[in-house]
From TrEMBL, chain A:
CDD domains: RHO_alpha_C_AntDO-like (cd08879). The keyword Iron applies. SUPFAM superfamilies: Bet v1-like, ISP domain. This is Ring-hydroxylating oxygenase subunit alpha. Residues 52-134 form the Rieske domain. InterPro entries: ARHD_Rieske_2Fe_2S, Rieske_2Fe-2S, Rieske_2Fe-2S_sf, Ring_hydroxy_dOase_asu_C_dom, Rng_hydr_dOase-A. GO terms for molecular function: 2 iron, 2 sulfur cluster binding; dioxygenase activity; iron ion binding; monooxygenase activity; oxidoreductase activity, acting on paired donors, with incorporation or reduction of molecular oxygen. Pfam families: Rieske (PF00355), Ring_hydroxyl_A (PF00848). It comes from the Bacteria.
From TrEMBL, chain B:
This is Ring-hydroxylating dioxygenase subunit beta. SUPFAM superfamilies: NTF2-like. Signal peptide: none annotated. GO terms for biological process: 3-phenylpropionate catabolic process. The keyword Oxidoreductase applies. Belongs to the bacterial ring-hydroxylating dioxygenase beta subunit family. Transmembrane segments: none annotated. Pfam families: Ring_hydroxyl_B. GO terms for molecular function: dioxygenase activity. Keywords: Dioxygenase, Oxidoreductase. It comes from Streptomyces canus.
Amino acid sequence: MTATLPETAHQQTDKADKYARLIQPTRVHGSLYTDPEVFAEELERIWYRTWVYVGHESEVRRPGDYVRKNIGPQDVVMTRDRDGEVHLLLNRCAHRGNLVCDAPSGNSNSFRCPYHGWTYRNNGDLLGYPYNKGYGGKGKLALGLGRLPRVASYQGFVFGSFASDGPTLTEHLGAAAGELDRLARLSPEGEVELTAGWLKHRTRANWKLLAENETDGYHPQFVHGSIFSVTGSPIGALYSDNSTAVTRDLGGGHSENDLRPEFRRFGEPMRWFGTTEDRVPQYVARMRELHGPAAEEILVEGSPHVMIFPNLFIAEIQLFVIQPLAAGECVQHATAIQLKGAPELNRRMVSQCVGSAGPAGMLLADDTEMYERNQRGVALREPEWVDIRRGVDRERTDDNGFRIGTATDETGMRGFWSHYRNLMEA
Amino acid sequence: MTAPATTDDTALDLRQVEQFLYREARYADEHDYDAWEALWTDDALYWVPAGAPDGDPVQQMSVISDNRSRIATRLGQLRTGKRYAQSPPSHLRRIVSNVEILDDDDAAGPGRVPGDLTVGANFVLVESRERGKEIWAGRTTYRLRLVEGRLRLAYKKVVLVDHDRALPTLSFLI
């Protein structure tokens, strides 16, 4: 090390070296999942900097609505003020740091801290404080709730960034924005709603094991073979060695399992939903009425299977939010997607999502078992590395310039790690 | 011992009911899937709410919301031996207590048939797995029915004390 560099530059170089060492093109080091120092650096460089998905506008539909959300360990209150603007406030009183909001959701134009009665407007402004002569009178304190400096939404999906500047949400989403469009267009009214409530699944594993698994098309036949065999589900075949589906690195750490080639091959409306059009006749009729001949493509191609970096995963009919809490702990929040104007689908999506997701889910409990065993495994000393080379030699570039692999290739993981490394070295 | 201040009929009913609940609990603790499945009626509903304990399971997310067919699917998956969240199986023991016959139609859940008996009880359950030990506790509402002289289970609702918190994997029969 050169003695002439100032200390901060030293640390920068160390960090860059560290992540260049730990993240290689076809393997990543096990300590990335277990080291508390790495986790602390991730909070600073990813979770408290980049755009993170927080909530959906349908959860705070009316002025005054609020809902408790989070960014990693940060307790965030998403509110809608009387002008209709959505805010992301930190649940911390400016006086002594107490929690100002204790309900999971509700409707209120203000929050009153229970400790000394300080009151805040639902845009974070300090409204008042008792016995104000002790502060020189009313309106003398320029304090307020902490708030995320940047809040933006796309198709009703609300994202927040702790950084005052940086890439815009549109830049952050890049090609992943198109996947949210694809989801929204499945609603006859063009709107997604997240109104079915949440399952919260405590997971003793590092958040990145989840993010990597979301578009891992290699595992379903093995981890989920038990449920596929009992139900005769055709999902397994989508992720077989013969599948025409592709895994796509969408850039920016986002990735997808693009199942459309398989659905187009069959050309059957609603096959993506595991059903046929005669089972959801009103929905299909409404979509055809709205879109004319273009409806066929929408009804055949269905919903995306996309992981939006770092914490939003949309799996056709359900949506997951990853909340990291420590190197070895996170919570998966899961809900059924609801499409405005599609009651026939909504009821089925709740039923299917309850069957598959959450602590007792017939899919997700097994995924989570894998995450937790994996977490114990990567803590073992040898062979140190986690291998992500699958499909690297058959990967190609598609017409839009994205890297794609087969349905079972680790193309998505390599994209995730490449973006992760950029952020951690920044 | 002094007899409890109830009629003989009720006392007998309660003892039968308790024996049934204990047996159901033992089948679940010991992963006796066939015996447990045989307890259910065809219109069965097995429900573990999430979030609000009295939400609508048709419109709101639940931890478990199984009709008879989905109970069969769940047990079928467990029987493959490759339901990894339960393979190897958890070691389980639960205490069922505070058993009461409830005179409350609201607690009976949907699909009550005349003659069905609604019963409430509390439970504490210890689960031991390689991952660690979990303590589960809650309130169970059962709806029981006499079918050809045998008690059967038509409805089981389990409200966990942790219903609105993040839960670890719950892959055994609760």
